[in-house]
Amino acid sequence: MKIPKSIWILAALVVILIGARLVLLHSITRHVNNVLAGVQGYTCKVTDVDLYLYRGAFQLQEVSIYKAEAQNEIPLLYASVIDISVDWNALLDEAFVSKITFERARLNFIEGEKSDQYGTGADWPVVLKELSPLKINHVDIADSKFTYYDLNIKSRNEFILYNWNGTVENLCHIADSTSALPSTAHFTASSSDNGIVDMKLKFNAGKAVPDLDAELKFENIDLKVLNGFFNTYAEKNVEQGELDLYTNLSLLDSVVDGYIKYEAAHLKVIPAPAEKPASSEAWHSIGMFLTSNQGKEQFAARVPLAGTIRDAQPATWFALWQFYTNAFLKGFERKREGTIKLKTVANEDTAITRKVEKQLKKEQRKERRRKKREERKKQKDS
Q1: Of 77, 182, 203, 312, which cross-links 212 as Cys (Cβ 3.0–4.6 Å)?
Q2: Contact 77, 105 (CB under 8 A)
Q3: Domain count within the chain
Q4: What residues contact residue 63 under an 8 Å CB cut-off, 6+ apart?
């Protein structure tokens, strides 16, 4: 029986596609291994790499990143899947860029006398850029978890945020926007004590040190879950108490401005001497602050944030994270602005947001005027 010519052509195309896929998959796998092997200070492992031609994507499966020579077996990052694909929504706007999705990721920060782990020492945005063949425009985080471990604490040594989901959009500035801060991010999570976390960011991804405005809301924190920290560092034990935390922070031309506000209720704190108290003036100050305000039905306080992020490389975001956490703890060591009315916590307007937008728009107007002057000068000279 003679096989039709069309069948031979179809079979040849299938063989070519399979061969092309195998070659491309081998090339991608080799590229991924080379990029991850070049991350200084960390050991990166990938169980498998898979390719999905029909949607222009490849996946890294079972990704683990460990701090090199660490004395613990907890990875900095574990992700069940890291999916890197063409951003089809952006393609409709004639922009050929990529989208990265982290599925069931586990991010672990560690504090310890001999083994700190905060992800510093490597430029992770550059690592992601090298992994993706296209410019990254969109990042999704789905069904993930963040854990903070303190190895100095024996009783309860971790603080966990569950159900971490988030989206970062417009990193390449592909969308037409008149906003001074065109890139956006929104993250939500929950803590084991039914606390709710909501963080919104607006920023300019085009700058080495991005201008940004950040709003963070962390509500319904049961202070008893932090007793490991209070017992170890402040020799206190919280028997009851709830805390709400609100932050508005701006970064404009590397200068930080903002505040942290606390709203607490129903505090009851008692002494809890530790066997070998660890040294931390910040946590001791927080413990004393809570003790001095216990018994009140409700109270609120405001801690200002101010400083400068000087070093844009290798990790501006880590520098900003460290600045914020240091300010959060050490804000209790200096004189606070005092107790404030509870209604001002909820009703204070977003003056920082307006300040950022106003100043950046002013800079944009100056730049437009400068270009017009140059154009008029060229026309006059010609």
Answers
A1: 203
A2: yes
A3: 2
A4: 44, 45, 46, 47, 77, 78, 79, 82
316 found inside a domain = yes
CB 274 within 8 A of CB 235: yes
pLDDT tens string 103-136: 999 999 888 766 788 887 788 888 888 998 889 9
DSSP letters for 261-274: EEEEEEEEEEE---
- Beta-strand ranges (E) seen in 13-56 are 42-52
215 and 137 within one domain: no
Amino acid present at 201: L
Instruction: Report the alpha-carbon distance of residue 59 to residue 106 in Å, rounded.
Output: 17
| 155 in the same domain as 197 | no
* 1 contacts 28 by C-beta, under 8 angstroms: no
Measure the CA–CA gap between 355 and 243, rounded to whole angstroms: 28
Closest CA to 132 of 182, 167, 172, 105: 172
Containing domain of residue 335, as a range?
A: 177-382
Over residues 190-247, the pLDDT tens digits come to: 987 788 999 998 888 877 778 888 888 988 888 888 877 777 777 777 778 888 888 8
Give me the DSSP letters along 73-97: ---SEEEEEEEEEE-HHHHTTT---
- Nearest of 263, 323, 274, 272 to residue 299 by alpha carbon: 263
Q: How many residues does the chain have?
A: 382
Whole-number pLDDT of residue 141? 95
Sheet holding 212-222, edge to edge: 42-52, 57-67, 77-86, 98-111, 136-150, 158-169, 183-191, 196-203, 212-222, 236-252, 255-271, 298-308
Letter for the amino acid at 152? N
**In the block, residue with structure tokens 């929504």:** 89
Are both 233 and 119 inside the same structural domain?
no
CB atoms within 10 A of CB 145: 16
172 belongs to a structural domain: no
309-349 pLDDT, tens digit each: 765 544 566 666 666 666 666 655 544 444 444 344 334 44
